[in-house]
Amino acid sequence: MFGLDEDIAVAVSGGKDSLVLWEILTRLGYRTMGLHIDLGIGAYSEISRSKVETFARARNLPFVTHALQTEHGLGISEMAATLHRPACSACGVIKRYNMNAIAAEHGFPVLATGHNLDDEAARLLGNVLHWQEDYLEKQSPALPSSHPKLVRKVKPLYRLAEREIAAWAVLQKIDYIVDECPNSQGSKLLLYKDVLNRLEAEAPGTKHHFYLQFLDRQKAREQLTPLTPDLRECASCGQPSTGEVCSYCRLIATLKVAR
Ligand code: SF4
Ligand SMILES: [Zn+2]
Q1: pTM, 2 dp
Q2: What is the 3-state secondary structure (H, E, C) of the chain?
Q3: Is it the case that residue 107 has pLDDT exceeding 90?
Q4: CA 174, CA 162: separation in Å to the nearest integer?
Q5: Which of 30, 133, 190, 194 could form a disulfide with 25 if both were Cys (CB 3.0 to 4.6 A apart)?
Q6: Helix axes 206-224, 188-202, angle to 10 degrees
């Protein structure tokens, strides 16, 4: 996934998974930088940001915060309402774009996120239920860089269950935001997690088996036909893109028209 000689940008939301990941990487001796996107969701974002800042300052770790409110004058919920699209879909585009751009700008070749087994198994279930084959191809705990401006994406906690991570966070006295993002209420991902938890209660090991077996099959498939996404530079911002203009620039252009 990565070596000790590589600098790691860690995407930190203020939740348990990302702070546990940052703590582990720091203890293992990696040079890291925290990267926080302040989504501008009222009290939830204020608490999230303060958890990240407190964590980093207590350990003297560097971090960067990118605030949507400062850049666009709107938080993610207002942006999504203006665009007439679900908050999580706009949020995904904005977070992915900014995380990659900021990590690359600071010279970090790797971006690590705190996704755990529950996240990945739930995402896999959603992708399978809807036969989203494009997404299935990209669902890997380590996505290589296929463009000089694209940093490698890794998910080192993908084998650990959410409960295990929460237990370790409590034992290590890591202070994280317990509340979920208010926009996650009613999300399909939470429904899939609930379904998988019920299966797990009846048949322990289901989640591991489901996700890890998928990864084994994916690895075998990739050896036959390696993934080589055709990326170019966005005509507007210069960041890697599959189309002439990247999805972030298209979203921001639509936002400007809609306001
Ligand atoms: S729940 Fe949706 S809006 Fe909230 S952080 Fe996650 S993707 Fe973004
Ligand atoms: Zn762009």
Answers
A1: 0.94
A2: CCCCCCCEEEECCCCHHHHHHHHHHHHCCCCEEEEEEECCCHHHHHHHHHHHHHHHHHHCCCEEEEEHHHHHCCCHHHHHHHHCCCHHHHHHHHHHHHHHHHHHHCCCCEEECCCCHHHHHHHHHHHHHCCCHHHHHHCCCEECCCCCCCCEEECCCCCCCHHHHHHHHHHCCCCCCCCCCHHHCCCHHHHHHHHHHHHHHHCCCHHHHHHHHHHHHHHHHHHHCCCCCCCEECCCCCCEECCCCCHHHHHHHHHHHHC
A3: yes
A4: 15
A5: 30
A6: 110
What ligand has the least distance to the C-alpha of 234?
2
Neighbours of 246 (CB within 10 A): 23
pLDDT score for 237: 97
pLDDT above 90 (res 224): no
Among 136, 154, 132, CA closest to 145: 154
Any ligand 1 atom below 6 A from CB of 88: yes
